[in-house]
Specification:
By secondary structure, the chain is of the alpha+beta class. Helix content is 42%, strand content 25%. It has 2 domains: 3-81 and 248-301, no CATH class; 86-217, Gcn5-related N-acetyltransferase (GNAT) (Aminopeptidase), CATH 3.40.630. The strands form 2 sheets. An 8-stranded mixed sheet has the order 4-11-5-10-9-8-7-6, sandwiched between helices. Residues 1-6 have low confidence and may be disordered.
Length: 302
């Protein structure tokens, strides 16, 4: 599927899932965590100007719009995507990783899931996965979850689910968004009980083989640098499965009022970060993330 030939089916899917989606000057945007981002994987995102982003902020009423530029064209940056290119094989792994994958395969196996399987078993996996984290806001409501899964059948070929099983039981799965010969692993959920049996190794090995070898995609991605929550997933993919950082430039356009607030708060960013690390607070976490984003944006402009 290509955006040019078939239109932006990714944006269509996001809308079917219940996301807020708008089109400004032919470019599709959707709301993500309270702000606007383009509805494209980074390699096929149209060229966006600050003027277009300003209109997006005005139309949406959101505090800011964020987008990337120069993906894969800059050698170094404070902003990156974690991706993997080229064919995949066990021989590319360390001996320790090969051993874990083989041990995991003795008890577990991974494959593409049907929508029905995800509806029956996926939500339970998400709830179990949530227990690994201190926060309890990772999992959407059952109604929102089901709408998201059902939308995959309405807009064919954009969202795939890939699961790992112990016998007949689903013990982990990934939500994979496809666009223009690449795939974004947006969310991966694991039942913690099966992680010691290397469920994560088995699932990732199978997905790399499927998307890079069988489907010959240009790359798979776990997404951009994490700003809004702590995660060890990207380091795991880089260190264990030879993912790399593909650099880009981070751009942000604020509403007028929000820009003033960011400029006033920015000199106190270190204090905000220290407090957000010390105390659990959604307000502090969001403020710290916005200031971290601004710090990255400024570094990209140097």
């Amino acid at each position: 599927m290509t955006v040019k030939d078939f239109g932006n089916t990714y944006a269509q899917l996001l809308k079917e899932q219940g996301n807020y989606v708008i089109t400004v000057e032919g470019i599709d945007w959707y709301e993500y965590q309270g702000f606007m981002v383009p509805a494209y994987l980074p390699h096929c995102c149209p060229k966006i100007t600050p003027e277009i982003a300003r209109k997006v902020v005005e139309v949406s009423g959101k505090p800011f719009a964020r987008w990337d530029s120069e993906f894969g064209k800059v050698r170094d940056s404070q902003w990156w995507y974690v991706i993997r290119k080229r064919t995949w094989s066990l021989e590319q792994c360390s001996g320790n990783t090969r051993s874990k994958i083989r041990r995991g395969r003795k008890h577990l196996f991974a494959r593409i899931l049907t929508g029905g399987e995800v509806l029956r078993s996926g939500y339970n996996v998400c709830r179990k996965a949530e227990k690994r984290y201190e926060k309890t806001d990772f999992v959407p409501s059952r109604q929102t979850y089901e709408k998201k899964v059902q939308a995959a059948a309405e807009v064919d070929g954009v969202l795939e689910f890939f699961g790992v099983f112990s016998g007949e039981d689903l013990v982990g799965y990934s939500e994979n968004y496809i666009q223009d010969n690449a795939v974004f692993w947006e969310s991966i959920w694991y039942d913690p009980e099966f992680l010691p049996k290397y469920s994560s190794y088995v699932l990732i090995d199978a997905m790399l083989n499927y998307y890079l070898n069988d489907k010959k995609f240009a790359y798979v991605s776990d997404g951009s640098r994490s700003i809004y929550h702590k995660t060890g997933v990207q380091s795991f993919l880089i260190n264990v499965f030879s993912f790399t950082k593909e650099y880009a430039i981070l751009n942000v356009k604020y509403s007028k009022k929000f820009e003033i607030a960011v400029k006033l708060a920015y000199p106190f960013k270190n204090i905000v970060w220290a407090l957000s690390n010390k105390w659990t607070s959604n307000t502090l976490s969001k403020a710290g993330a916005v200031l971290r984003q601004e710090h990255i944006r400024r570094a990209c402009k140097k």
